[in-house]
Amino acid sequence: MKCKVILNNGKPDGYFTAKGELNLGPTGFGLFYDLDGDKCLLRYENGELVQERRGSVPMVMRFKLGQETSCTLGLGANRGSFPVFTNKLNIKNDDKSVDVQLNYMCGGENITLEIIAKA
Description:
Number of strands: 10
Helix content: under 10%
Number of domains: 1
CATH architecture: Beta Barrel
Number of helices: 0
Largest sheet: 10 strands, antiparallel, barrel
Order of helices and strands: EEEEEEEEEE
């Protein structure tokens, strides 16, 4: 279903909106949207949230509560990765929306992010 996507990291310059497509399933969801000219996908299933971004610098970041996972940037010889530790991962959804509350450590930085998709 078509939806409005809101990404908010709590900083004055960290509030973004986009149009997207939300696909809800029995055990998770897939959210497709464009951001700054890049194609993005946020998917959740079996306790794992995966954020993918396809554009000039492709990125795949994985989140699992209380676990160290990874963020991979780039392709081929220009590909690299670094660890990500998820402190908070709360997912709320109904038949027309998803609300993701996320807090993670990445590169020594503590990052909080809320992602909302509403039909």
